[in-house]
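I'll show an entry:

:::
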Amino acid sequence: MLLGCIADDLTGATDLAIMLTRAGMRTLQVMQVPAATAKLDGYDAVVIALKTRTCPVAEAVELSLKSADALLALGAKQLFFKYCSTFDSTDQGNIGPVAEALLARVGGDLAIACPAFPTNKRTVYLGHLFVGDVPLAESPMKDHPLTPMRDSNLVRVLQRQVKAKVGFIPLTTVHRGPEAISEAFAQARARGERFVILDAITDKHLVGMGTAAADLPLITGGSGVALGLPANFVRKGLMKAADAPQTMTAPKGRMAILAGSCSEATRGQIKAAKAAGIPVYEIDALAIAAGKLDAAEIARWAAKQSASGPCLMYSSADPAVVKAVQDKLGREQAGALVEKMFADVATRLVTDGVTRLIVAGGETSGAVVNGLGITALEIGPEIDPGVPWTRASGRSLVLALKSGNFGAPDFFVKAWEKLTS
């Protein structure tokens, strides 16, 4: 293993894994911290999918350090802490505290921080994160039910979360390439900065900063930063690039979609699925809380739908509806109820013959994978940027685990075309 990766949620881990796979690294995604005796000789990169984006800070730091220790013990030469391209976090963390703890663990004096992913319209300019053409704080992320982002300035956001000094490397420097970026790293060290936010508006900028970061023991960022990392190991003679997978054979069985994300993108995908004639079932958190809805009822509905196409079960709603539910049930309680329901529904669906499953939403994906007892995922073909099909290791089950913000409007309709029969 060359690159050890720690992701703060499941879909983020999958996003990173497909990026590394596409760039030629033999990549395995695991759902738990691997043992020191794990046999990982066949992989260049291992991505550990944690669920630490919104858990208590101390828990996130503890799990991340445990993951780092395991990866380093298994031979990782560099660590990558992956977080969302929308820098999801509160003023307390968890991005900053985890990054600071990891930097201390590897004994590093500088780490980069860049969530940019231009392919999915996430860019950083003048230190501000943009979603499409609008600043993060003016995007739908301002109403995120768990991590509302009300400040677009990443230097300010990260500085509120860490004790170390946070610096900034502007686009004029990044655009000049790896040598200029490396020189900026030296200048940042001289100023006493331990984290630097970098501008990036194209993939070329991400490749440049990845190249410049070849010898940093820790890299933090969105999956886009990984564009430049595999080539570093090739240049050092540590690996040969492999071909990315082009197809994945799906086991025979039924298809289903579970959508727990309330993002604007996922709500648009649900709308497109309805327009395409996909049968839908809306899951009401208040009905769950009142004991009027259980997983068996939803699974029975799914079993009655045609086996020739997918059916969709969703809890996604617009921000006003989500807030009303949270006000009544409490934010954590509402989220936990829905996540448990999706995990229970997924278990019943698989028992009933579903072998091809799309799950939308990081928290939802984590709950479903844990509920199904999946321990590792093999990476398959990409459906849309950052979202591949995966196969549960050792099982006749393929899954597409989608971040709520990712995917084209027709994602739920077209995803199946990437599978072979």
